[in-house]
Design goal:
Layout lengths: L19 H15 L3 H13 L8 H20 L3 H22 L5 H18 L3 H15 L5 H20 L3 H18 L5 H13 L3 H17 L3 H17 L3 H15 L5 H17 L3 H18 L2 H17 L3 H18 L2 H19 L5 H25 L7 H24 L3 H12 L2 E3 L27 E3 L17 E2 L3 E3 L9 H11 L8 E3 L2
Parallel strand pairs: 4-5
Antiparallel strand pairs: 1-2, 1-3
């Protein structure tokens, strides 16, 4: 593998003969890391780093020290040593500042500093420290600017890709998709080998919207790009993601086959944290295939490794699957403990949809527990607890869809996420024979949404207008249309960029609302509004 085969920061001016040995060691380590031979690369980097710790180190040596430390930070994260990754990153930034104080950007140190910020952002995101991660990637983008030049262009791709991942973690999916498309354009213009990562992110976004076909297409593209680039680790991760996508689409056999292929490919690399992620996915696949024993065997070591590394996102998912396994075995108390542990992880990261999703899983588990109750009173008590979890989760999930702009993503969310969640809540309300609440829930689900009239919508209108006549909304007027009305997506001058929250409903003016206390509890539990403050009569 030549130097040109490795995608990385080259630097501006040569550091001269004094640092020739350092350069050789650092570049050799980069080549090994690109082949997945992380342990060897780390050993060589420590040797290179030692050469820079001399009393008369100059700006070129400090720049080299920053590069070696930055490389060690990235490799430490892959080893599951997130504490070490943050320590190396902090030391790398100190070396950058020292080099820049002596020689400015003579050796390309500013780009190295931006790169370290991007890498540290990725580590902070694994740890769930999303505000700090966002500050780092924003700082990197401020340094990079428009990405002119080879090094700056590479960093622009990396930083925008990292920002995409962060926005996905923050559940800002429309912003994430825009960032992924920008990354894809930048990558295609700079080096096609870089396009695999934005393809993978577009797949994650498609999966979030339950568009499994699109997700699989993106992941196959990502795999092909990574193989072409000679990046076996990233290619294996793309195959693993294909397995996860197949599982979510209900094709468990294909999911298991792809995950096994990814594991075999990763066996040749030194990536224990990625291996732990893969073991979790295989455990999930085994559980879905009905092999609880295999799922438990895989899941325990995965949870241990993920917890040790502080990899919060996958840890939360692994804990949730552990809860599913325990509930399926009838150990409902332990299952709820596992769900609550996952809930706590997501609460700390601010992933509000995942909180609602976990509560829905808890509700299904408690509903199953109710079926084992020995007395009618015990069954009713458990059904009420299941309903408490289910209704708040359903109300929150329904409210999240109002954050989507009108279009396919919003309707897919409603059809595949919000409506099934509400159906479960309705079934429990019916089982509890709460007719008044069922009536109000049906009114709630049928309520119109309010539309902001402050700005035109950012969406593609139909190529040809429908044959049916459409009403012309008055400019600047606050209007209400049903969420599914075609009028919301047919005219380029339609005045709303997205739906605002619907009003609260007064179903019966002579009776206190049965639903309103649940709306308030949902807003308290998840920390975001479910309905606007406006109250309208439905009669």
């Amino acid at each position: 593998m030549t130097d040109d085969d490795v995608i990385g920061l080259r630097g501006k001016e040569t550091s001269g003969p004094r640092w020739a040995e350092f350069r050789e060691l650092n570049n050799s380590a980069a080549k090994l890391a690109a082949k997945g031979r992380a342990v060897e690369a780390i050993a060589i980097l420590h040797g290179a780093l030692e050469l820079t710790y001399v009393d008369d180190v100059d700006a070129a040596g400090l720049d080299g020290r920053a590069r070696a430390l930055g490389n060690l930070a990235g490799l430490a994260e892959g080893q599951g040593d997130t504490e070490g990754a943050l320590r190396f990153a902090a030391q790398a930034l100190d070396a950058c500042h020292a080099a820049e104080a002596q020689a400015g950007d003579r050796y390309g140190t500013v780009a190295v500093r931006a790169s370290v910020l991007v890498n540290r952002c990725q580590t902070l995101q694994l740890l769930g420290r999303l505000d700090e991660a966002l500050a780092d990637v924003t700082g990197a983008l401020d340094i990079i600017g428009d990405g002119d030049g080879r090094d700056e262009g590479l960093l622009a791709v990396t930083a925008n890709n990292t920002r995409t991942v962060l926005l996905i973690g923050l559940e800002r999916l429309e912003e994430a998709e825009a960032a992924a498309q920008l990354t894809l354009r930048l990558a295609a213009a700079l080096d096609p080998r870089l396009t695999g990562h934005p393809y993978s992110n577009l797949a994650v976004i498609a999966q979030s919207l339950n568009d499994h076909e699109a997700a699989m297409d993106y992941l196959r593209l990502a795999e092909q790009v990574h193989l072409m680039a000679g990046d076996p680790v990233s290619a294996a991760l793309a195959v693993a993601n294909q397995g996860r996508a197949a599982m979510r689409a209900g094709d468990v056999a294909t999911g298991q086959r792809l995950l096994a292929a990814a594991e075999q490919a990763l066996d040749a690399s030194d990536q224990p944290l990625r291996a732990a992620e893969l073991r979790y996915s295989r455990a999930h696949a085994a559980f879905q295939a009905g092999d609880a024993a295999a799922a438990r065997e895989l899941l325990g070591p995965a949870i241990t490794a993920l917890r040790r590394a502080g990899h919060v996102t996958v840890l939360a998912e692994a804990l949730a699957v552990q809860g599913d396994l325990q509930a399926a075995a009838g150990d409902f108390d332990k299952a709820d403990d596992s769900y609550l542990a996952a809930w706590q992880v997501y609460e700390e990261t601010g992933a509000r949809y995942h909180l609602a999703r976990l509560d829905m899983r808890r509700s299904f588990a408690v509903t199953a527990q109710a079926e084992t109750a020995r007395t009618p009173r015990g069954r009713t008590r458990l059904l009420r607890r299941a309903f408490d979890l289910s209704l708040t989760s359903a109300l929150a999930t329904d409210a999240i869809r109002h954050g989507f702009a009108p279009g396919r993503a919003r309707e897919r969310w409603a059809a595949t996420v919000a409506i099934p969640a509400m159906a479960h809540a309705l079934s429990l309300a019916a089982a509890l024979r709460d007719g008044a609440l069922v009536s109000e829930l049906l009114e709630h689900m049928s309520a119109t949404v309010s539309l902001h009239a402050s700005a035109p919508g950012e969406f593609q209108p139909f190529a040809e207008p429908p044959d049916v006549p459409l009403p012309e909304p008055a400019q600047g007027e606050r209007l209400s249309f049903t969420a599914s009305a075609l009028v919301s997506g047919t005219s380029a001058d339609f005045p709303a960029a997205r739906f605002s929250l619907p009003p609260r409903l007064r179903v019966n003016p002579w009776r206190e609302s049965r639903l309103e206390p649940w709306i308030r509890e949902t807003e308290r539990r998840y920390g975001f509004p479910i309905r606007s403050d406006e109250v309208v009569d439905t009669w």
